[in-house]
Amino acid sequence: MAERFAAYDSRGYRTLDVAAGYASWAPSYDATMDDRLDLPLLGSLASVEWDSAADAVDLACGTGRIGAWLKDRGVRRVDGVDTSAMMLERAATKCIYDRLICADITATGLGATCYDLAISSFAVCHLDDL
Fold first, then answer.
1. What pTM was estimated for this model as a whole?
2. In this structure, which topology does domain 2-126 adopt according to CATH?
3. pLDDT below 50 — which residues of the chain?
4. Residue 82 CB: number of other CB atoms within 10 A?
């Protein structure tokens, strides 16, 4: 990702790969993340009955913002997957997730039919191939 960014960067900013960037951001992530970017959109989704999802997976769960939001809406069991061990450490302290997995969201090792709901917020921009 850093190499592609260079084509748009006339100032020569130092860039990090995804893992290093999120490891660096983890301590301040919750304080700097603006919930107005995604939570109102999730709340406006009329086609999803959040509380009818018994089991969910939060892909690229980060520090647990979306997992907490899901739990507040009645999702009973939520697993989190993230590639950043530092973000997962922050998520673990919140006791939101039933299971936390350090893995790439495109190769989680989780079964294909294990969940009623799969969700991801702000992660697809980091994927080379959807």
1. 0.83
2. Rossmann fold (3.40.50)
3. 1-2
4. 26
